[in-house]
Every structure is written in structure tokens, then in C-alpha cells.
Amino acid sequence: MPEWLNALPKAELHLHLEGSLEPELLFALAERNQIALPWADVETLRAAYAFNNLQEFLDLYYAGANVLRTEQDFYDLTWAYLQRCKAQNVIHVEPFFDPQTHTDRGIPFEVVLRGIQQALLDGEKQLGISHGLILSFLRHLPEEEAFKTLEQAMPFRDAFIGVGLDSSEKGFPPRLFERVFAKARSEGLHAVAHAGEEGPPEYIWEALGLLKIKRIDHGVRAIEDERLMQRIIDEQIPLTVCPLSNIKLCVFEHMGQHNILEMLERGVKVTVNSDDPAYFGGYVGENFAALHEHLGMTEAQAKRLAQNSLDARLA
Ligand SMILES: [Zn+2]
Predict the structure, then answer these.
(1) Residues annotated as catalytic (active site), given as ranges
(2) Does pTM top 0.90 for this prediction?
(3) Ligand 1 centroid vs 220 CA: distance in angstroms?
(4) Can you tell me the mean pLDDT for 146-175?
């Protein structure tokens, strides 16, 4: 990565902590917790990181998350991510975590939260990285389950800045979560949601209109709907775009086809993020580098993208 790219101060606004679990740490945690893995070694696991769509990735992602058991595991996961941030001049993070991925396999909510929270606090003190944590609901599970998760989270209300919506998009439109998002907002939490990654522009309209989101996660399919484009430009609603993820999950065939710079030039408040960096081939820095290499992103464009990420912070 060019040094000028690395040196730009940036924020990361679309990152799933569970998706930053590198194979080496995954194997180390499996050993610490005495969990048998379906992969022989780190290389076999890395070789499995070839996906045809979002669902194929999710299947592997949930299998990987199974090694996370103790507060220390969640601490180590988060701390490893923050160190990558430090190396790439990411000065602020607003990561997601998926409580249901853990509570559904018997890990108490507070074990997950305390590990993550302690690492974020240490990151602030020792690495100078500020943060705002976002609790994300799994949309392939019923809204009722999301309500239960929100209830579990409420004793720790001050640990979060907002709620999000992730996992399988197609067939699980935002409208299914209208009530739980209303409840979260009534608690003073910000709302964001994944929309318009694999799903159609209608999902973005729903997320804006019904969930009243402040930021659109992905949103690259907004470009198919001119009226929607006008709205997100007029209202400067930020999009947290994840270029390497989009290529790995076949949202675009090649990086050369990615629309992020086209959106930027049209005045959309787009930002660059890594989504699930351990699975998609890189962190924020590598995502910027890919835009430079394949789309000819200029230094001026990189600066605007980095500034957008700082402007689009919720915390
Ligand atoms: Zn995501």
C-alpha cells in the first residue's frame, strides 16, 4: 500500500468483529478451548475462503465464530482488530457484533460484551482509537428473537451507540424489523442497516423509511434507482461501502466494475470499509489500495473518502 494512503486518518464504520477472526487466531482459540475443527490447518481453512454468494460466506463465518467462548476470546479478537487499525491509521471505529451468533450457542450476552468492551476501552487508552459499538440483529432469525436480544442488551445500554441489521439479505427485507428498530430508537439508539448489497433498491427505501436509519451499510445497488440516488445525495446519507467484500461475494465481478468512485463523483457520501476482513482479503488499507490499483483512485479522491468516513461517525 502506498505510504500516503496508509498515512490518511480514517474511520471504519462497517466491520463485523466476528469477521476479523484470522485463521491463525481461530486455530489458537480452538486449541485453547479444546474444540475440534473441520479444517486440518490454517492453509486448508484459507483455501475454503472462496465464495459464490453471501450465504456461502455466512455458513463458514458462523462455523468459525464457534471457537469464541470466553470473555478473553472476545477480548483477543477485538484487540487483534484494533492493532490492525493502528497500523493503518484508522483512528475511529464503529464495529458491529452479532450477539445472537453467540447467545444461540449458550454463550451469555455479558461474556461477549465485556470482552469486546474492555478491548475497545484499552484501544482508546493505549492506541488512541475512539469507538462506538453497534449491536447487530441477525435478519434470518425472527423479529421476536431480535426483541429478546435488545432486552438482554438494555442493562448494558451505555455500551452501545446503535443497532444494525445483518446476515442473509435476500428474502429478509427491512420491514420485518420495523417494530424492534422503533423500540431501539426509543431507547436513544442510532439505527443503521445492511441494505442494497444483494437485495434490491426497495430494501434501501424500506430501511430509510421504516427503520429510519442514519447510514446505509453497503447500498451499492442504490445506483439502479435514480430517485433513490437523488435522495441520498440531497440528504447526504452515508453509505458504508466494502469493495473487497463485494468482489469476494460476487456483487461485482471485478474491482474494475465497482461503482464506488462513480458514486463519489456524483456526490454520494460513500466511505471505504472492510466488512469481514479475515474472510475477504484485507482491512481498510487494503480496500483503499484496491481502489487505487484497479479504479485509478486519485489522492484527492482518497482524501474525500477518508474525510467522509470521519464525517459519517455516529459516536
Ligand atoms: Zn457487513
Answers:
(1) 197
(2) yes
(3) 12
(4) 95
